[in-house]
Specification:
By secondary structure, the protein is of the alpha/beta class. Helix content is 55%, strand content 7%.
Length: 616
C-alpha cells in the first residue's frame, strides 16, 4: 500500500505504550529516506515512467476492536512505528513549507492525511483528531509538530534554536522528532529551490512520498499472537535491542493479564526509557545499550548462571516463565530493585559504592557485577555491604599483584552471587566462600603470597598502567597521616622506575664496578649474578613510584645521589619521601621498600579472615 493509502481513511494508528520512543535520526535513517523520495520526485518532474516502487518495509497492525458504527477505527502498531512516525513528521514538514511558500492547496491536501476530519465520530477530539498517536513520551512534541507554526515551535523549543532561527548543530541535542522535522524541512526547501517551478517541485516531492513509497501492511486478527509475528518479522533483519524485545513481551503479557499497562509504564518501566539506559556501553569487544548489560547482570544475579548477550531476550523469557511471577508488576519490581546498583556501578559519584565501582572499572572486572547485585538485593545494612565490597576489591587486587589469571572470574563471581542470594548476603558466608578458593585459577592470595609478589613479580611488565596507578594511589593514601598537607592525587602522575631501566652508566653494581652496556660482555660469573639480581628487581613494585613527567625527565637515568634523591625529597608524596630517606638506592633498598609497601597493602586489601564490619 502507498503511504498515502495508509493515511487516506479515517483511522487512528496508536503506538502502544510499551513500544520504544522515536529513535530515527537524520544521519542514520532519514537522510537515506529523503534521497529515495527526491530521486522519485526528479523522475516525476522528468516524466519518466515509474520503473519500480520503493518498499519501506512492513507495518503490522492489530485492531483494538471490531467494526463499531459511528466510531473511528483504532489499530495498535505492533511493528513499523518508527517509519510510520517518520512519514507523519515528514508530511507535517512539507505542509508547513507549502504554507510558507504560498502553496495553500498542497497544504490543504496534506491536512487530511495528518488529521481525522469527521468530528462527529470522535468522543475525545483532543486525541482522536490525530491519525497517529505516538508513545506517551513522544506525544507532546509530536502534537506540537502537527499543530504549531515554525515561529511557535521556535519559541516553544527556544534552547534548541540559534538566534538566527536555525536548529543548533552543536551543544544541547534537540529531541529526535524535532530534529527529524527540521531536517526534512531543510532538505525539501533545498530541493524546491533548485531550477524550475518551486510549486511543481514541491508537488512532485509530496507525490513521490505518498505514491511511490510503499509499505507492506499486515492487519492481524484478534486470535493472532502479535508478539510471535513481531519477532518473526524482525528475525534476520536489523537486530532490535533486547530492551525493546523484553519491553514488548512484558507489556503484551500484562495486557493479556488485564493489568493496567498505563500504570505499569508509569510506575514500573518509565525509568528505563531515560537516556541513561539507552546510552551505548562497551564490555570487551561488545557494544550495546546499557539496558542490555543491565538485564544480563540481573539474570546472572537472580539465577547464578551466565547469560550471553546475543541470547538475552530468550534467556529473559525463560527466566520470567520459570519464576512464575503472579503479575507483571511483581516481575518489574525485580528490575527496579537492581537498577540503583547498576547506576551506581557505571556512574559512581560518591558514597560506599564509589570505591568498588572504580576498582571494578580499573581492573576490568565487571564480571563481579552480579555479586554486587545479589548482595545489595539481599542486604540493606551498609556496614555489611562495605565489608563485602572490601572483600571483592581485595580479591581482585591481590590476584592482579600476584600475577594470577582473571579468566575464571565469570564462574567464580556467579557462584558467589548464588551464595550471597541464598545466605541473605551475610559477611560470614561470603568470607568463608572467598577463603575456600584454592588453586591458581581462583585462589585468594595469602598475606605471604602478597609479600612475595611485591619482592619478586615484575609488576611494571605484568600489570597495566592504570591498575598500577590505582595500586600506588592507595599505597600513598594509606601511608599518610592526619598531618599530611595534600589531599587527593594529581591525575598526571606517571608510573616511573627509581633505579632506571637503563642503569649501567650511572648506577654501579654492588661490588662498585660498572656493567657493560649490553649487560653481558666480559662479565665474570660473580658479576653476572649481580647483574641478574638487579635485572630481576627493576620492575618489582618496590622499585616503582609516582612522578610527574617533567620531574622524571629531569632526573631520567641519573644517579640516586644527588639528582634523583633530591627530586624525591622535594616530592609531596609520602611514598617518595620514604625513598629519599634511604642513603643509597640498591637491590637491598628495593627489597626493604617492597616489604614496607607489602605490609601497607595487606592492611588496604586484607585477607578474608581480616575483613570485619567497620563504621560506614
Amino acid at each position: 500500500m502507498p503511504i498515502g493509502g495508509v493515511f487516506a481513511d479515517s483511522k487512528r494508528l496508536v503506538v502502544p505504550i510499551y513500544q520504544r520512543t522515536y529513535e530515527w535520526t537524520p544521519e542514520r535513517q532519514i537522510d537515506t529516506l529523503i534521497d529515495y523520495v527526491e530521486a522519485k520526485a526528479e523522475a516525476r518532474l522528468a516524466n519518466e515512467p515509474a520503473r519500480f516502487l520503493h518498499y519501506m518495509g512492513a507495518l503490522l497492525l492489530i485492531p483494538r476492536s471490531g467494526f463499531v458504527f459511528g466510531r473511528i477505527p483504532v489499530f495498535d502498531i505492533v511493528d513499523g512505528q518508527q517509519r510510520i512516525t517518520t512519514f507523519q513528521i515528514a508530511l507535517a514538514a512539507l505542509r508547513d513549507l507549502a504554507i510558507e511558500r504560498g502553496e495553500q492547496s498542497i497544504a490543504d491536501q496534506i491536512r487530511p492525511l495528518l488529521f481525522n476530519i469527521d468530528e462527529a465520530s470522535m468522543e475525545d477530539k483532543k486525541s482522536e483528531r490525530f491519525k497517529l498517536e505516538p508513545t506517551r513520551l513522544d506525544r507532546p512534541i509530536f502534537r506540537e509538530l502537527m499543530t504549531k507554526s515554525l515561529a511557535e515551535l521556535q519559541e516553544a523549543y527556544e534552547p534548541y534554536f540559534t538566534q538566527a532561527g536555525q536548529l543548533r548543530k552543536t551543544g544541547v541535542s534537540a529531541p529526535k522528532p524535532l530534529a527529524a522535522w527540521w531536517y526534512v524541512r531543510q532538505r525539501a526547501a533545498e530541493f524546491i529551490d533548485e531550477e524550475g517551478s518551486p510549486g511543481l517541485r514541491l508537488r512532485a516531492l509530496v507525490e513521490a512520498m505518498l505514491q511511490d513509497m510503499h509499505l507492506i501492511v499486515i492487519t492481524l486478527a484478534d486470535t493472532d499472537d502479535a508478539q510471535v509475528i513481531f519477532e518473526t518479522l524482525n528475525f534476520g533483519g536489523e537486530p532490535l535491542a533486547a530492551m525493546d524485545l523484553v519491553r514488548n513481551d512484558v507489556f503484551h503479557r500484562a495486557a493479556r493479564n488485564k493489568e493496567d499497562i498505563e500504570d505499569l509504564m508509569d510506575t514500573g518501566w518509565a525509568m528505563f526509557e531515560t537516556p541513561f539506559w539507552k546510552e551505548k556501553a562497551t564490555q570487551g569487544r561488545i557494544t550495546k545499550p546499557r539496558m542490555d548489560f543491565f538485564l544480563a547482570n540481573v539474570l546472572a544475579a537472580e539465577t547464578g548462571k551466565e547469560t550471553l548477550l546475543n541470547e538475552l531476550y530468550a534467556a529473559y523469557k525463560r527466566y520470567s516463565a520459570g519464576r512464575n511471577y503472579g503479575t507483571v508488576e511483581a516481575e518489574l519490581q525485580t528490575l527496579r530493585k537492581h537498577a540503583p546498583t547498576y547506576q551506581a556501578l557505571v556512574s559512581p559519584e560518591s558514597g560506599p559504592m564509589a570505591r568498588i565501582a572504580n576498582a571494578l572499572e580499573v581492573f576490568d572486572t565487571r564480571t563481579a557485577y552480579p555479586l554486587v547485585f545479589a548482595l545489595n538485593a539481599a542486604v540493606s545494612d551498609e556496614h555489611t555491604r562495605k565489608a563485602v565490597y572490601r572483600l571483592i576489591e581485595s580479591y581482585v587486587v591481590r590476584r592482579a599483584i600476584c600475577g594470577l589469571t582473571p579468566k575464571n572470574y565469570n564462574s567464580i563471581f556467579l557462584r558467589l552471587a548464588t551464595i550471597a542470594r541464598e545466605s541473605g548476603g551475610t559477611l560470614d558466608a561470603l568470607r568463608d566462600a572467598f577463603a575456600e578458593h584454592s588453586g591458581s585459577s581462583n585462589l585468594f592470595p595469602s598475606d605471604q603470597d602478597l609479600r612475595q609478589a611485591f619482592e619478586t613479580k615484575p609488576a611494571y611488565q605484568n600489570i597495566p598502567r592504570p591498575r598500577l596507578w590505582y595500586i600506588f594511589r592507595e599505597l600513598e593514601f594509606a601511608s599518610r597521616d592526619e598531618y599530611n598537607e595534600v589531599e587527593g592525587l594529581k591525575p598526571d602522575l606517571e608510573i616511573e622506575h627509581i633505579l632506571p631501566q637503563t642503569w649501567y652508566e650511572h648506577w654501579p653494581l654492588a661490588d662498585g664496578s660498572t656493567a657493560p652496556a649490553d649487560l653481558t660482555y666480559g662479565l665474570s660469573d660473580q658479576r653476572r649474578a649481580l647483574v641478574d639480581r638487579r635485572q630481576s628487581l627493576i620492575h618489582v613494585l618496590g622499585n616503582l613510584t609516582l612522578l610527574t613527567k617533567p620531574a622524571n625527565l629531569e632526573v631520567y637515568n641519573y644517579a640516586f645521589e644527588p639528582e634523583k634523591r633530591s627530586r624525591l625529597r622535594s616530592s609531596l608524596l609520602r611514598i617518595n619521601q620514604d625513598v629519599a630517606a634511604e642513603t643509597k638506592w640498591d637491590e637491598d633498598a628495593i627489597v626493604r621498600r617492597a616489604r614496607r609497601l607489602a605490609e601497607l597493602a595487606i592492611k588496604i586489601w586484607p585477607a578474608p579472615a581480616a575483613v570485619e564490619l567497620q563504621p560506614v
